[in-house]
Specification:
626 residues, mainly alpha
Length: 626
């Protein structure tokens, strides 16, 4: 057990070796010092520590290395406790060497755990991982060495050390302490079960050299495990191997004692009681000088077992009774230690709580600062990207608007040209129709009247013929006048007559009804006053064209024309129940079709809407501002 303490202490000091001590006066190979300690090379570690003995750190390092090496078996004078605001690293080393000194030279002192906890508290506050590891190992060594059999408070610190261990030798120490706490006592090992940490230890130890001193610890644990497995020969060989490693090494004194105890147990199980008693006699040479009571208990218990095996029940009872008395004394001391240690732990737990809260607040503030910084950077990047994207969209929108304006201008120009073409075409057709009417009707009548005048001039002396010629000529002139008047009437379609637009549309509906079995109705609202003449003519021509389209294309049987006059607009609705048509094909119509009508309506600032579906009739809505 003492070896464990020394190892732990050694390990702690090793960890410290990774750092540069504040205030050092000479170059000091801390990494090498750490390596020697963690690998149980105490003599080399002491030599290195002496190189640094001109500073408080060097003195504390040397004292820690010495107390680990001597392990309570050789007299030792510790460094006094540092008081005040000295260097924190030196303070941690000082507390550790003081704690180990108490552990090895004055066991069962409650101050021991207090020193280790204070060292742990300081190492945690300065956020130094290696000092923290050292302090954790010291705490674990105390729990294992003093009263591991009676509580499980060590688990918290062992788990923390597990999480910090990185190198193979550090992991070996971690798994070894797991096994120490598993076996706890060297008694009744046959009741223990194999632990997964043993396999983990074997996986890590292959990374160490074959002559590595840690093999002494491994063989001791391996020997105990072989006993559990019932392989007594292998267990005996392993314990004998430990004795070879432990020669003349004070820090391995407890391993030597434990190996002789285990060898006596092996002989007991083999019923070789005298050999077992010899092994126990050898163990007496390696009793812990600082804590003989505990080792004496083991010797008396196992001696009692062997005497019982030999049938010497009197000596067996005597030794057993002595071990019981010693156990009472040890239990009393342990209870005192545990009560004091519990109080120290409670105080330390409160410190840990405050430290954790402080660290959490600090970490939270750091995270908030980092988060705000990232948000600021991210926000700036997003703002820049949004600005650039907005500018790009604005440029694209401006370009699209320019293109749209160009398209609209082109459409308007095309519409104007189409309107002009449609109007010219309509005017040309009207001229052709008028010329044809003048030629065919009025021209023929006037030609006949001309002939009558020619005959009249030849027969001036013939009164009878003259009278007849005058009568016929007058009749022809009346006919010509009537035809010209009729043509003018047709030209205005009755709109310029005194009754205006509505009568003309009604007459148009009556004339169109009956054609192709079509019936047209006219409805009106508000047509109480005449409209401007040119507007009435335009509206009539539009309605006339729509009726013509119904007759020619719709195959409708029913149609209606609705004319409604309001204060500021004229509304015309023309509906039929015909076959309808596809509005996408409107542009394909020629002449005076819907496209031409739309141009006419736009010319008087009106609007045209077409609602039609193939097979469901057609509705045309026209709104004209007044």
């Amino acid at each position: 057990m003492k070896l464990k303490k020394r190892i732990l202490l050694l390990f702690g000091f090793i960890v410290f070796g990774q750092f540069t001590f504040l205030g050092q006066e000479h170059s000091f190979p801390l990494s090498e010092f750490y390596t020697n300690l963690i690998n149980l090379e105490y003599q080399e570690a002491k030599s290195l520590a002496k190189l640094h003995n001109n500073t408080s750190l060097g003195k504390e390092a040397l004292s820690l290395a010495l107390v680990l090496y001597k392990a309570g078996q050789v007299p030792h004078q510790p460094e006094p406790l540092l008081i005040g605001k000295e260097n924190k690293e030196a303070k941690v080393l000082n507390l550790l060497q003081a704690g180990y000194y108490n552990l090895y030279y004055h066991p069962n002192e409650p101050e021991t755990l207090k020193y280790f906890f204070e060292a742990y508290d300081i190492s945690t506050s300065i956020t130094n991982i290696n000092y923290r590891k050292t302090s954790l190992l010291a705490i674990l060594e105390f729990y294992h060495f003093e009263y591991a059999q009676t509580h499980t408070r060590y688990k918290k610190y062992l788990i923390e050390f597990d999480q910090l261990a990185q190198t193979p030798i550090e992991k070996c120490w971690a798994y070894l302490y797991h096994l120490y706490f598993l076996y706890q006592s060297i008694e009744k090992v046959e009741e223990k079960k194999i632990d997964t940490n043993f396999q983990k230890l074997e996986e890590e130890i292959v990374e160490l050299s074959k002559g590595h001193k840690f093999h002494a610890l491994y063989n001791s644990i391996k020997g105990i495990q072989s006993e559990i497995d019932g392989n007594l020969e292998d267990a005996y060989a392993k314990h004998m191997r430990v004795l070879e490693f432990s020669k003349e090494k004070p820090y391995f004194n407890y391993l030597t004692f434990r190996s002789y105890i285990r060898i006596s147990e092996i002989f007991y199980r083999k019923k070789e009681y005298n050999k077992g008693l010899d092994a126990l006699k050898n163990s007496c040479l390696f009793i812990d000088k600082s804590n003989t009571l505990k080792d004496s208990i083991y010797i008396n218990k196992y001696t009692s077992k062997h005497y019982k095996g030999l049938g010497d029940y009197e000596k067996a009872y005597e030794r057993l009774n002595k071990s019981v008395e010693e156990q009472y004394k040890l239990d009393y001391k342990n209870n005192s230690i545990q009560n004091s240690s519990l109080e120290i732990e409670l105080q330390t737990a409160e410190k840990e709580k405050q430290l954790i809260l402080s660290e959490e607040i600090k970490k939270r503030n750091q995270n908030i600062a980092i988060g705000l910084g990232l948000l600021l950077v991210l926000g700036s990047i997003i703002a820049i990207l949004i600005h650039k994207n907005t500018k790009r969209k604005q440029r694209i929108a401006e370009q699209e608007r320019a293109l749209e304006i160009q398209k609209k201008e082109k459409i308007l120009k095309d519409q104007e040209l189409t309107t002009i073409d449609a109007m010219i075409s309509g005017q040309e057709k009207e001229r052709q129709r008028l010329a044809s009417d003048l030629h065919d009707s009025v021209g023929a009548t006037l030609a006949a009247a001309k002939l009558q005048f020619h005959h009249l001039s030849k027969n001036r002396g013939n009164n009878d013929q003259t009278e007849e010629l005058f009568t016929k000529t007058g009749k022809l002139l009346d006919d010509a006048y009537t035809e010209i008047r009729s043509m003018a009437h047709v030209k205005n379609s009755g709109v310029i007559a005194k009754n205006g637009l509505l009568p003309a549309v009604q007459k148009l509906a009556r004339n169109a009804s009956g054609i192709n079995k079509l019936h047209i109705e006219v409805e009106d609202f508000g047509l109480e006053e005449r409209l401007e003449n040119s507007l009435e003519i335009t509206v009539f021509r539009i309605i006339q064209e729509l009726v013509t389209n119904i007759i020619k294309h719709s195959q409708a049987t029913e149609a209606s024309i609705s004319i409604n006059q309001y204060d500021d607009s004229l509304n015309v609705i023309v509906e039929d129940n015909g076959i309808g048509f596809d509005t996408r094909n409107i542009s394909r119509h020629d002449g005076m079709g819907l496209t031409s009508l739309e141009k006419r309506i736009e010319h008087i600032e009106g609007t045209l809407e077409v609602d039609t579906t193939p097979g469901k009739g057609t509705t045309i809505l026209i709104d004209i501002p007044l």
